[in-house]
Structures are given as structure tokens and as C-alpha cells.
Design goal:
Structural class: alpha/beta
Shape: globular
Number of helices: 15
Radius of gyration: 20 Å
Strand content: 15-25%
Distance between the termini: 17 Å
Number of strands: 12
Strand order of the largest sheet: 1-2-3-5-4-6
Largest sheet: 6 strands, mixed
């Protein structure tokens, strides 16, 4: 069964839908509602759109442009990321379900107006079940191009009615959640004098560094990009730099903030950490997030782990505000609510003797069960 409504596509364009299950109540143990493979030969577009759940509303999630080695790698990533968006939107209090898209290719070489517009037509073909935004490898200007083919896109530039760069409130949200973690661990939300290690100082990480420096924290950074490190040092000369993530993890830290790609927390990393708090912007930080073993290991070691999909929700809160006519003050106020949500997750975890990752999942699932639509979102 497919819910796709096809636009007028030329013969060189194709798409196929898999993994669609019949509409029914949200059930985290079952698969995605819909997975769409998108291929436009003329532009070279190869993309996958995954809709995990529309129980709370249209699926919302960014478009990642990345040179995956194989299609299977791209599929695994989009399935994992879209599921995470369901929980992120639910815990952030949004009326959205979870979705994600990946475009297979090198954005520096393969990105073009024709490709982005072809992708926009595929988003439009889903009839509003999926709303896209920026992610790794895509930017505000790209969303403006995609918007020429579909209205189901947020994260546009201000001149085109959007909120601009969502990294702004993503970084603020991570900083806000980090303060809540500090209050939980040390009895005060102040970060002055604390040593925070930031792995990855790209779009979000370098803004997070700014918040931390302003708060009086001692900041240590690393990044595979020399240019990214140089930008941070130019803005904040007091920041220390280490050669790589391994060196950072083994440094004496109070807080570790993974802000690059996923899988940052494997067993070796967790066992090596001296930090008492892990709170960062990267998605899918736990390398075995399906089994939950690493979340339990962090708990055993007395490390407070702030679930990534909770603390990095500032960006999705920001772009979702566009649907009401974007207002930065209102969006920032909503992101400030991540402090209380983080407190609630950590309190639930402590009360029940479970990991914060499991507590966050439970709170998200409870909200979906309490107010989620009986049937997935259907555009009429």
C-alpha cells in the first residue's frame, strides 16, 4: 500500500516505496510507515526519504547530503535518524512525527540547482506527510531552492519567510541542557570553571563554544577540519586544542560534548571518559543505541548522559516555529524549556534507577500514547 501522490514526472525520473505499514496506533517496536527511494537520472539525484511516524503530525526532519559508500549504508542511516526524529519531536512538545532524508553524493561536487529541485518535487509528491529541513551537507540556501518546488520545507532564509540557520538555537539548546545536567550533578547550573571538551566545532559546535566561553567555562576542542579549529581560535583565543578525539576523551574533563557525526560513544570511549557529564549536539551518539548497553555502561560509571535527541532539539524547535510565522523570541523561549525537560528526564532516571536514555524514550512514548493521533497523519 502506498500513500504517494505523484506529480508530473518525466520518464527519466523514478521512485519506489517500501516498508509501508497500514495506518494504526504508534508502536515503537514496529517499522517505519514509509520509505521512499528517489532517483532522477537527469540531475543525478539519488535519495531516500524515511517516514518513521506521523502519530503526532507530519513527519519533520532534515535532509543529509553525504557520500555514503553504499546504498545500504544510506538506508541504515536514514532509518536510524528518522526514528530518532520521532522521539525528538515528541519530547520537544511538537505536533510533528519523525522523518529524515539522505541524498547520496558529495555535496561539494554533486549538489546543483537541478538536483535540489528534483529532490523538492519528490518531497512534494508525499503530499505533506514529510517536511524537510537542513542537516549535514545542506544549508539554508539549499532549502530556498527546494522551496521553489514544495511548500513542505522549513529552515529557509529570512528573506524567504524562514528562520535562517537552525544551528543558532541548536547550540543554545545544548548549552541549556548542559546547565540542567550541571544542576543535577553538582547542585548548580553554573559552568564557570568547569572544563568542557567539544568534539566537532562545525555549524553547531563553534556556536556552543561561544556560549561556554561566555559562561566562564574552560573549553578544549578538536575537529578533523583545521579551518574549523582556526575559526574557533580566532574568535576565542583562550580555547585549548588537542590533536584528535582520542586525546580529548582522555583529557581531564567535567563535560564531554560530542558535536560531530554519530557513533561518538563506543565502549572504548565510554570506558576512557573522565567526564561526569556527556551532553552534545551529535545525533545517535551511542554506537549500540538499539541494544542500550552503552547507556547502561555510562550509568554504571556514574556518568550522566543527556540523550542527544533531547538536548539537540533546539534546531527543530526553531524551524518548526516557521509554521506560525517565525518569531525568534518565541522560539528561543521554547528552547529554554529544554532545561525543564532535561531535569524531568534525569529525575525520572534517578527515581526508577534506569538510564536517562531509557527515561527519555519512556517520556516521549507516553506523550505519543496520550495525545497522538489514532491513525497516522493523512493529507486530505
Amino acid at each position: 500500500m502506498s500513500l504517494l501522490t505523484h506529480p508530473e514526472l518525466d520518464p527519466t525520473t523514478s521512485e519506489r516505496t517500501t516498508a509501508f505499514r497500514s495506518p494504526g496506533p504508534f508502536d515503537p517496536e514496529h517499522g517505519h510507515e514509509q520509505v521512499v527511494y528517489c532517483h532522477d537520472r537527469a540531475s543525478g539525484l539519488r535519495a531516500i526519504i524515511a517516514i518513521h511516524s506521523t502519530a503526532l503530525g507530519p513527519a519533520l526532519g532534515g535532509t543529509r547530503f553525504y557520500p555514503y559508500p553504499t546504498e545500504d549504508d544510506a538506508l541504515a542511516d536514514v532509518l536510524r535518524l528518522s526514528r530518532g526524529m520521532t522521539y525528538k519531536c515528541a519530547l520537544a512538545g511538537l505536533d510533528h512525527g519523525g522523518g529524515k532524508a539522505v541524498i547520496i553524493g558529495d555535496p561539494a561536487r554533486d549538489k546543483s540547482e537541478a538536483l535540489l529541485r528534483a529532490y523538492g518535487r519528490f518531497v512534494e509528491s508525499l503530499g505533506g506527510r514529510y517536511v524537510t529541513a537542513c542537516d549535514v551537507g545542506t544549508y539554508v540556501a539549499d532549502m530556498d531552492v527546494i522551496h521553489r518546488e514544495t511548500g513542505h520545507v522549513v529552515g529557509r532564509s529570512e528573506v524567504h519567510g524562514g528562520s535562517g540557520d537552525s544551528s543558532v538555537l541548536t547550540a543554545f539548546g545544548v548549552f541549556t541542557a548542559m546547565r540542567a545536567c550541571a544542576a543535577h550533578v553538582w547542585g548548580s547550573d553554573a559552568l564557570r570553571g568547569r572544563t568542557v571538551g567539544v568534539a566537532g566545532v562545525g555549524k553547531v559546535g563553534h556556536l556552543l563554544v561561544g556560549h561556554l566561553v561566555d559562561a566562564g567555562a574552560q573549553v578544549v576542542v578538536t575537529d578533523v577540519s583545521t579551518r574549523a579549529v582556526e575559526r574557533v581560535r580566532a574568535e576565542h583565543p583562550a580555547v585549548d586544542v588537542v590533536a584528535g578525539t582520542d586525546a580529548l576523551v582522555r583529557s581531564t574533563l567535567d563535560v564531554y560534548a560530542p558535536c560531530a557525526l554519530g557513533g561518538a560513544l563506543d565502549r572504548a570511549t565510554v570506558d576512557a571518559l573522565s567526564a561526569k557529564i556527556v551532553c552534545g549536539a551529535a545525533n545517535n551518539q551511542l554506537a549500540d543505541d538499539g541494544a542500550g548497553h552503552l547507556a547502561e555502561r555510562l550509568l554504571e560509571r556514574g556518568i550522566t548522559y543527556a540523550p542527544d535527541y533531547l538536548v539537540n532539539a533546539g534546531g527543530v524547535i526553531q524551524v518548526s516555529d516557521e509554521e506560525e510565522g517565525f518569531d525568534m523570541e518565541r522560539a528561543r523561549h521554547r528552547v529554554e524549556g529544554l532545561f525543564a525537560t532535561t531535569e524531568a528526564v534525569l529525575a525520572r532516571a534517578a527515581e526508577q534507577g534506569i538510564s536517562p536514555a531509557r527515561a527519555a524514550d519512556h517520556l516521549a512514548e507516553e506523550r505519543i500514547a496520550a495525545i497522538g493521533a489514532r491513525f497516522p497523519y493523512l493529507r486530505r
